[in-house]
Every structure is written in C-alpha cells, then in structure tokens.
Amino acid sequence: MLAVGVLAGLSVLSLLTYGYLSWDSLGLGPGETEATRSELGEGPGVGDPGSQPHIVFILADDQGFRDVGYHGSEIRTPTLDKLAAEGVKLENYYVQPMCTPSRSQFITGKYQIHTGLQHSIIRPTQPNCLPLDNVTLPQKLKEVGYSTHMVGKWHLGFYRRECMPTQRGFDTFFGSLLGSGDYYTHFKCDSPGICGYDLYENDNAAWDHDNGIYSTQMYTQKVQQILASHNPRKPIFLYIAYQAVHSPLQAPGKYFEHYRSINNINRRRYAAMLACLDEAINNVTLALKKYGYYENSIIIYSSDNGGQPMAGGSNWPLRGSKGTYWEGGIRAVGFVHSPLLKNKGSVCKELVHITDWFPTLITLAEGQIDEDIQLDGYDIWETISEGRRSPRVDILHNIDPIYTKAKNGSWAAGYGIWNTAIQSAIRVNHWKLLTGNPGYSDWVPPQAFSNAGPNRWHNERVSWSAGKTVWLFNITADPYERVDLSTRYPDVVKQLLRRLSQFNKTAVPVRYPPKDPRSNPKLNGGVWGPWFKEDEKKKKLDKSKGANKQKKNKNKKKAN
C-alpha cells in the first residue's frame, strides 16, 4: 500500500509538471543502425538504400497474458520463449479487448473512435466493414515496392467486394472472413439456419482446399508456399493472423500428449491448440531461414486481446478477461524478434500500443506517411531496438457511446466533465481511468482450472459500493488493479476525464448497422461472402426514377 501511495503521488506530480503529451527525452542522440548481412548476399543496415526489411506480423487470437512459457504458464511454448528471449519482450504492450478493434487499429494506426468501429465487433450479417476511406498498412507498403500477403483471419468486414483483403492492399489472401469457425470444416453458423462455408483464396471460396486440414497447419503450409515462391531480394510483408486459440476448442490428437494431466477439459484443449500454434511459428521461422529471408527480417508477435477463462485462457495475475477494459482484456503477450535489433535479449517496459505498428513499419520500409492522415500511433522502433523512451504517453483504450450504460453513471459523478454512464477507459503515464461498465472483473487464478469443469469458487472478486462508475489505478505500482484510487486523487480523475472529453470531440459516428437478410449464405451458394451489389442498387434506383418519369408524363397527358 505504501508503494502504491508513493508512486501515485509521483504520478500526480508528473502529470501536473509535464502535462499529457511530453516525455523526458533524456538528451539521447540518434544512434546508428546495426549492419546486417543477408544469407543471399550483401545486406546493408536498415535505413540504407535497398535495405527494406522483410516484415512478418503474427497475430494470435485470444491468447491470454499468462499463456506463454516466459509468463509462467504450465503450457509449453518453446518457440515463443526462444524467439522472445533472443529479441525484445514487450511488457507494457496494449491491444484492444476484442478481435475487430485490434485488427482495425493495427491496419490503420487509428483508434476505434476515428474509424467508427468503437462498438463491439463486425458481425457476419452486418453490412459493415473497415471504412473504405482509411488507408491501410499493406497499401502503404505496396507503394514502396513490397509484395503483400495475408494468411488467416480477416474479421474487418466483407459485405461489399471493396471490403475484401485483396481490395485493401493485399496481393494475395488465404483465410477466413469471419471471426471464428470450425478449424477443420471451415463452416460457421451465426444463428440457427444461417450457416455457410468460410475459407477463401483471394476473392473466391477455396473449395479446393477443403481437405479437413486443421487451420493452424493449413495456414502455415500456405506461408511456406509463399516464401518458397517469392524472391527474397525483394521486400515482402506477411500478415499471419492465426485462428488459434479462439473457440471452438479443437486440436489434432497428438498435441494433447503433454496435457492429459489437466483435468479442466477447456484448459486441456486450449493447451493443445497453443502447442500446435507454437510449433507452427517454429515452422514459419525455419522457412524464413531456409529461403533466405531471416537475416533481413523483422518478426512481430502479438495477441489480439486477452484470454477468455471460460474457453481455457488465463490472464493471471491480471484482472478481467477478453471483452473488458481491465488489464486482462487489453494487456497482451508481444515481442519483436529480428537480427536487425540493436538490444537483443532485452525487455521493453515502455508504453506500446497496437496502433504504433502502422507508422513504425512504414518508416522501417522507407515509406511516407501522408500529412493528411491523422494517426494515433507512434514510431516506436528506437524504443524497441535501442531502449529509448517511448514517444507515447497515453492510450485511449476506447469510448463506446452505445454500450450498455451504467445505471448509476451521471455527469455529476464525472464532475460535470464526463458522463460516467458511458463505457470508456484511458491510460495517461502511470494512471488508468475507467468509467461506466468496464465488464467482468474477476481475477482468475490457475486453481480455477484445477477441476473438470469451470470453477468460479477460486476466483477473486472485489465488491464495490453500489453505484460506482469511476475507477482510478496507478498501473505502474498496481498492475493487477487491486487498489482503486479515485477517491484519494480526485484532481487526477478530473484531468483524465478532461482528456477523455478532448478525445471524444474528435470521434466519428459509430458504425453498427442492423442485420441484412441478404447476407444469408444460402443466397450466395452456401458461402459467406460479399452480398451487397452497388451496381444492382444503382440499377434499381435508375429504374425507379425512370418509372416515376413515365408516370409523370402520363399524368401530364391526362391533364392535357
């Protein structure tokens, strides 16, 4: 408690002295980039002409914070452990609490409030997708000569052809459009009777690949094929968005061998899925070395959100789970592995957010960021590679104006600055503020998975006073969110509420349309895919206009 108070006091001083948007630069000057050599010839250092690095971004799905060997998990992840140990572990790294938001922020470098995707996820039957006026990371990389390929889960909308991955900057796409589905059959039911096939190669259903292969292995094979057929002298961007370890909990039998002692069936299946994923990433790394990419490559690994305990994931000792703004929902497993790193084998505790990859990777690729693009991400390569201070001092975790309002929230509780009924969360330096209904808030220790079924008796809960809608934590001193400081530091609360209000002024309207019955796969050959046809809509409008003109002309003749 004393440590919390001391650090909290220091953070108040920091906020009052330096404000929200400044870091002490420590007077560090620019450093040289380490020179590297390619396996296939002379490889100049990053930043030299012709030295564009190969970029491999691996996104795991629903991997819990604890679910990696180097975070103390009982699940073995030797590949992830080795890559992270030889690279830079990101131990103050944040994503969004759900699939679509993290993916949209990675690919645009923008917060959800600036794309209209601030509520929930994109549902299969919604006429919705990442807005077409947003420039994407692969589009920017293509401008500077990169070959761009995506393998895995898209989950950024597909109701129009213009929303498909191949229309958003990827030369090729192989994977699923939806948020989840069967790992073997690639079928997905959104609701009873609304079912369809969801495996694509570029813009068409990949029926030829419907061979019952487990998706983690199938995606890895595709990555190996891409690497084998590409020229390693030309830069490549590979976005590998594995389906694992998202539900449904399925894995090939051989991966259960080491985990038969886990009584909880969900945890056991989850462990097998993660073991398979770890092996897959080893195979990707071996392919990078075999085909001559590795020496000039940057491998980034990230989970898209926290784990879901009811589906086997563990975020211990963090609070909360996937879908919440507690640390367990948004603090992620992440690391960078690359021969191009200066400080290999180190730990980065500087603030990093998933939006930061957009400007960081474009800069590394020697691309240009247009002045009219209002980004929320920062170039953090020197922070990761050289151990410098992060340019980032705050993160808007989100503002969701249509999420279920907290019953007791009010403007009065927000000091007239903010309506605390609204779900929101923000981080500024050491401080984190939550308002509204932040979601499931238990701590779920490893003992919760000791029985055959889910056991909440082991979970820890905090009962707060009725009507509470504001929480304040010093995350540096209290990363597990056990000591609420909102009543002790009302001035800090007010400052963070003002920052929320400033962000909210820049928000665009929420895009969350109702279901469209035309999305039913039965109307599209049994396949989930684009259903909205712009041309047909225009033709109907033209026909109706023509019919109206004819009616008017007839009426005129009658009148005459």
TrEMBL record:
Source superkingdom: Eukaryota
Basic residues bias locations: 546-560
Region annotation Disordered: where it falls in the sequence: 508-560
Cofactor(s) in the UniProt record: Ca(2+)
The entry's keywords: Calcium, Glycoprotein, Hydrolase, Metal-binding
Start-end of Basic and acidic residues biased regions: 532-545
InterPro entries xrefs: Alkaline_phosphatase_core_sf (IPR017850), ARSB (IPR047115), Sulfatase_CS (IPR024607), Sulfatase_N (IPR000917)
Alphabetical list of SUPFAM superfamilies matching this protein: Alkaline phosphatase-like
GO molecular function, a single term: metal ion binding
CDD domains (alphabetical): 4-S
Residue ranges of domain Sulfatase N-terminal in the record: 53-365
PROSITE patterns: SULFATASE_1, SULFATASE_2
One Pfam entry name: Sulfatase
Family designation: Belongs to the sulfatase family.
Protein name: ARSJ Arylsulfatase
Species of origin: Ibidorhyncha struthersii
